[in-house]
Each structure stands twice: as structure tokens, then as C-alpha cells.
Amino acid sequence: MSLIDVKNVTTVAVIGGGTIGASWSAWFLAQGFTVRCSDPSAAAREAAPGMIAACWPQLSALGASGSADQALARFSVWESHLQAVEGADYVQENAPERLELKQKLLSEIDAALPIDRVIGSSTSGLKASDMQTGMAHPQRLVVAHPFNPPHLVPLVEIVGGKQTSEEAADWAVAFFNAHGKRAIRVRKEVPGHIANRLQAALWKEAAYLVQSGVASVEDVDLATSEGPGLRWAIMGPHLTFHLGGGTGGMAHFYDHLVPAMQTWWADLGTPVMDAALREKLVEGVQQEVGDRSIADLSAERDRKLIAILNVLSPDPQD
Amino acid sequence: MSLIDVKNVTTVAVIGGGTIGASWSAWFLAQGFTVRCSDPSAAAREAAPGMIAACWPQLSALGASGSADQALARFSVWESHLQAVEGADYVQENAPERLELKQKLLSEIDAALPIDRVIGSSTSGLKASDMQTGMAHPQRLVVAHPFNPPHLVPLVEIVGGKQTSEEAADWAVAFFNAHGKRAIRVRKEVPGHIANRLQAALWKEAAYLVQSGVASVEDVDLATSEGPGLRWAIMGPHLTFHLGGGTGGMAHFYDHLVPAMQTWWADLGTPVMDAALREKLVEGVQQEVGDRSIADLSAERDRKLIAILNVLSPDPQD
Predict the structure, then answer these.
(1) What DSSP character marks residue A272?
(2) Which residues form the 3-hydroxyacyl-CoA dehydrogenase C-terminal domain (chains A, B) (predicted)?
């Protein structure tokens, strides 16, 4: 079986029209695709076009051509996933994180879709191996996990299940990368894929430092965003340490700096997730944000994210 | 004892003229200070002005006024630390990371310097409590730990020792923040201060994922820089999760998402630092960088760092 050529994809089905589905829809529309979305909730179907329109100025700032209205002319929203997948060349599934529900949905989509089309799931918590058990063509299911917000953050984690073909996983990587995402292959099914594990590892120590009284919530946050965070937007931890090794690179780093690193590892902590820590974190964040609302902060984050993406892009938009 | 007014600082002594000392010197010059540097090595003294001049185009891009030559007219380099601290209003010490050496140096500087002046040490591995034991005025010693490269990265971690006064630590925070750094207070002396612990925590999991075969070195790096890393340049982990909690903020996050987080924590790993991992990391980084040299990569990192700092700045430079 050979899969549809990545270049021939014109129509994408987006299953689920909530926050993640709408954000994915906006991104697919910005790439020029026709998007067929589905959601069993009438309220979600009604809200979806407005959510997409709200994303559009951001996508325009990143180079999307045309107006929101022009994009929405390529968008339709359906009650049933079976209507959405009619004529779809790729399916992005964003149903609630319940295994039985996803299994049923994916089996039905699988039965309706030509066998040369790949199905990606946005799941952050479930395994492709478990979701694909009821599918007649399980080989074409991959996890295609975005990072919030999906229409802005380039990362997509591609994970195959036990029955997924190498071809389907490679196809998904090629498809996303052809359209400006940075898709990576996760080669084993582990909880949290990669990025959420890295976030969890960082926050574990961050919360521990707050709990231990080493620094305030705000100062731990600043110790990230005004220091290593600035570098992590540019390069990952290995490349960072390759440069930390001077002219000897990673080999020098490994031989000379790993001993210090291991001393620090030995001293890292695990916070106790009790009511006192909850209060400390909630109050600490409140002090940090002052009178900025969640909406203000999200807008600020997105504005800065777009600015960073544009300056890091080989072809910056103005 | 009251300390010199932050606004009255005109002259800074930088002890040690190596990579860190030269980078600090360049930054202090860019703030308009007169810089008196010292290094016992004649080769280091000869090299320092060139290293500062090499930093200057970067500092100009971040808004420093005047030419490198004009800045270097305010720079002098001496053999002895006692010469460097003559007339200094603040001292930034960057001697080799050996306790006895730092103790001797700091005691001598302390004896020579008016008592209303603060002394900061760039140490990443030593404690102020240990370094200040021989000083007649130990209350004025703080750790003022920069993040590499010091002339570009805003973070400065301020840590007091057992005998350090609150006043001196507050002074150091105010001094750096008055000149565009983001100084934070680390309230307990822990190995790695904060930022290096956070880096260590992230890399521990990153290296584990490579060792376990979950992903390649390059893909783990991309899973950082194309995902959470982009957000960490904008806000730290707590603020990130405050937004992850939707309209309920950190309280909602804590109540609803910490259970998933704890599942991930339970699955985080510790890499075995053996020869096989060393080879895997060295080869993986080699694949990732291709023919880009360490110098190319450093220049690329610094260029991107400056671009990000400028777009995140409330008053961007062009």
C-alpha cells in the first residue's frame, strides 16, 4: 500500500471543534487546505468559525495570505465525524481523552476513509497502540501531538503504535514539515511523549525550589525566562551543552562538566503536592501577575511568540 | 553602615579577565561604567581588549551607545586585583573556582575597599558562606552569578551567605536591575543556584530519553526549542501553567492537571552516564550540527539571542 503523496493533500478533516480543534483548523486553513471539521455539540459548531477568525490576525502576522473570511470560505463544520472525513486526505482527531470513545471513533473513520490516507490523533495521554486495536487498518494511525497553542507553536510529536507502519509515521513527519511545522519522531510510546516530560521535569524542580523556600514563584519563573529559557527558544539542551563545552563540544562537556551535573542531579528534589504548596503557588503567581488577567497574559504570550517566531524564521514576516 | 547609592556607582572592578570577566567587562562598559579589570596572566591582559571589542557589535545591537574604541577608553587592565579595586564602587570577582584562592582574594579586596561597597562573585559552584570566612566585612559579599554569555543574557542570581547582610543582597538586586539585568534573590545556598538546577533537571530527562531510544539527540533538542522552549523565553514554568489552567489559572491547574503531572514525574528517568551514552550524545550532536562549527553555532545563538531580546524588550532597538 502506498500513501497519498504529501503534495496532493488538499482537504483535511478535523475531528472535534473545541479549543484544540479550532486552533488546528485555523492552522490548516492558513496552509491553504480545505478544512472539514466535526463536533457533536451544536454550541461548539456555532463557536468554531469565531474561534478561527480570532486566530487569523496571528496567522496573518506569521505570513498567512488572505482574510479570515476568505479562509472561512474553505471551512465547513459537521455534526458527524463521518461527514467531516468525506473527501479528506488527512484526518486530525481531537476528541475527548477517553479511550473507548476514541477507539470507536477511529474505527468508524477508518472504515470510511480510503486506505491511502493517514489519521493523526492529538492525544496527549493515550497510546496509539491502545487506540488502534479496533481499526481494520491500524497501520495508518499515528499520534500527532501539537503543543499549545497549535496554530502558533511549530512542534508536532509523531508517535506510532505497535501496529503503525513506518511509512505512516514518516508520512506524517513529511506532511507537517512540508507546511512549516517541526515534526519529530517519538520512537517509543512513553507517558507525556517528549515535550510534556521535559516540562514535567523542569516544573518538578521549579516547584521544589518554591516549596523549599529557595526562591519565590516569580523569581523561579524569571530564573527560567531571563536565563536558560532564552537559549532554549534557540536550541535544545544537547546543542546548548555542545556550546558549553567550548571548542571541545559535547565530548569535552561530557568528560569535564558531567561530574558537576551529577552533583546537581543528586540534589534535585521532589515537591510534596499538599495544600500548603497549592496556596504558595497560587499566591506566588498572583503576586507575579498583579492585575494582568489570564486573557491579558495569553495575548501577551501569543504576541511575543509571534515576534520570536518571526525573528527566528529564515524568512521573517513584517 | 549604609551602602553607596546605586546611582552613584561610576567605576566597576572586574577581577579576572578570561571569558567571563571580559564578557562582564563589556557589559559594564556598555552601561557607561569605567571598568578596571585585573588578571595575573599577561596573555589574558593582552587578550581582554580584543574580546571586549568582539562583544561590542552585539552590545550596540542591544542599544549600547558609542564605539568599541570609545568604550575601551574607559577600560584598563591590571596585574593585581588590588590595583583593579582602587576607586571601584562595585567589584565583580571571576577568579578560578578554587575556594582557598577566592578566600584569599576576597579578604585582600575587602581590606582595600571602602566598607560601603558591595563585592559580587560570579561563582557557579561555591558558597558565599564559605568564601566570606576570612573577610573583615563579610556582610558585603554576595554571589552574583551570571548566565552565559554574561554580556547578553539578562539573568543574574544574587545569593547571600550566612554573614551577608540583607542590605547588601538587596543592593545587588537593585544595582543590576537599574542597568537592565534581571536580578533575582536566591534565598538559600543550594548547589547550582536556580538556573543551573533547572537546566540540570531538564537535561537529566533529555539524556534519559536519548539513552532509552525514545528519540534522537536532534529530535529531543527540537522537542524543546520548537515547543516549550519558545514559551520559556517568554514566561517561566509557573506562569505557563497558570495559563494552562484556563480561566481558573494556577488553582485550576493544580487541582486538575497535577495528577497527570505526577504520573509523568513517576516515569521520569535517570540516565546511566557510561561510555555508550557519551558516544550516542557526541554522535547525535554531530548529526544535528552537520558542518556547522562551534564558532558558527555560537554566532548563530548570539544573533538569535539578540533578536529575541530586542523583540521582547519594551523599547526594541533596530
Answers:
(1) -
(2) 192-256
